[in-house]
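re: ur question from earlier - yeah i can do the single chain one, its not a big deal. heres the input i used so u can compare w yours
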Amino acid sequence: SNNNTDDNDNNNNNNNNNNDSNNKSDYSQDQQTLSQIEAITKEIASTQPLTSTLQPIHTLRHLYTTSSSSTSSNGDGTDVTTNDKSNDTPNNNATGTTSSSTSSVNNFIKGSEYLCQKYTSWRRVRGDGNCYYRAFLYSLCEALSSSTTTSTGDDDVEEYVYREEYDRINKLVLSSIDEVVQHGYDRFTIEIFHEELVDLLSSLRPSPSSSSPPTTTTTTTPTTNNQNTNNNNNDKLHDTLNIENGTSDYATWYLRLLTSIHLQKDPTRFNNFIPSSSSSYHHNNDIRTFCKQEVEPMGKECEMVQVLALAEYLGVRVKIEYLDGGGLVVGDA
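and the output i got, formated as tokens:
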């Protein structure tokens, strides 16, 4: 009996030793993986800004003409923001895939040539899983900035409309934290993210002139001083939204939160838009869990249901130009 006990103790000790060895091995592998991820993240941060400066639209085509093996596009997880040549032209949706890489590259070239007819410039956004929200944020800030308004010959009217839209978005964002808290989120936890977005919008505040619609129409020509001011504002905005772990990340996460609460407000409706890859949420009609796991965490890719929810919450219109190497399909705006 004593021998059996000793044998059992030895076996237990061996098992414990094996478990300790396995645990150390797993820990070492985890540390190695984390180190690799950290190294990749640092390399990306040093070579790819969160959002690039404006680039001429023809450089988009060069991505596919300089090398037959190029695969860079919106389809690689990188979003772009573009500047329109016209507001009355149709959208582009490039859909489908081809088995031939040559055909795919040719389709990318055709798609980029189409975009060259519509836009004058574009920005590249880091493809880190947050690219759509980051592109949305940058584009929203540009749209709300007086430096992006184009002369129509009715500058007073245009300025008034711009101020109205700025005030609408600003008030909506200011009050949004109360609605977020009503959905069960802790105010103290989310305040810093909310404040970053509020401060960012405040930096875009238009200069006060008149608080009522203009009664006359005048035609003015921008002065050199105004152009310099606009350029300085653009540079400041660009610098602010390119600080690592700064305003862009904080505001981006808050946009995710606004997307989440809008989805949760109407689960029956939005459940029908949950992608098939998330079928478990769809069958269980569990929008809240979907939001917790697929919408709110940073780095989670944005699907069309998130695009729809965020645009609806802020009351803005979003145009998406998508290139994936498939044949060019032009839809109505």
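Confidence is low (pLDDT under 50) at residues 68-77, 86-99, 147-153, 210-224. not sure if urs matches, ping me
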